[in-house]
């Protein structure tokens, strides 16, 4: 009787969906499953998620993928997930309330205060990252002021993938990439007591989980094994935050390599041998836990939500994405002079500039503007934002790409034309899950992570720049930046206008003239 194929499981808990993939060790996809998860909006600028419901979604997704894969031998599993936010647990490792997500904007005013009092600069010096409203340190102070009941019950913090791994293994730990967004000195990959003191956060330090190597592993508990339909005792690796895991899944680990992710957020990152090689002061720096190497990243706040929003706004919600994209593709380059500023997130923008008041808008409209031009302008605006990140990082050449929006042929072609880079799109799905699957495979086979990742990557689709479009898009990109910079001083006032009518409702009847 033939032996069942050896496989590895990768789990990726994103902001809007949990994905699980079962891969043969030669990279063949045996099964993939996906379960949507809800983001709740309990108040203005707030974004939360039930940690319990997220775990239930993980169970459903993994069981579905494992059952669809059939008779396989599953030695290891890896977990990744969305980063940042506040995922707080009590002394029994139970949630004290819903997780506050990375895109939450309730701490916007506090971020502005920290920019003025020097604490944001202290974070930047130590972590190599800019402060934004969804970061843990500023959220802890916000909760202390507005939800002392919730914070008072908290004894531990566990980011998304750490919470899932806790359910799998009974052990709470994080990794250097995840902890880089809290209080870690990314030059050393360890928590910085100096930063804790500079922020006046000694009272929060006990919440922080221990940092373990990404490839460190613990056994799956019998209870979790029974719930998931997996063998008890299989190793579950610590894993990486989703943006770092996506790079591993794309085979990007060598200093000088660059990759992009366009999902709920956008992302452009490049690998450096050391923190000393980081060249910007507006990005995110993630320690990798690998010989001092770091990722220098620029992460615009809003990626696919721009496309989801305009699709719905224009009444195309019932149409397929192929139909929507065909309408945008039928419009010539430049969208008839319409520009779109893709800053739709409630928490503002964090790359390649930081501004919690950033707002989305179309400019250059007329009564002749068509829905197709509005659509194409959104695609182009996302690509312009990535080009601005590219120039800030000083990267070029070849960029590997993944993420939900990477399935768009139009967007891939626009990225190549607007950035001048060759875009290599992974044809395989769920690159974040594949990235942590590579860590899991390396952990049990004794190979290194780049070798394991190369085995799991699969084919790449290549999009090359069209020379004839570059000059036209150079002109439009310059206009994009100039218009954005001109309107930016008005963003705080425009944000204020959103609530101006709340205390003065519209009249319900007209007085006679």
UniProtKB/TrEMBL annotation:
GO terms for molecular function: kinase activity. The keyword Transferase applies. Keywords: Carbohydrate metabolism, Kinase, Transferase, Xylose metabolism. It holds the Pfam family FGGY_C. Residues 259-443 form the Carbohydrate kinase FGGY C-terminal domain. Gene3D superfamilies: 3.30.420.40. Residues 8-249 form the Carbohydrate kinase FGGY N-terminal domain. Coiled coil: none annotated. Belongs to the FGGY kinase family. This is FGGY-family carbohydrate kinase.
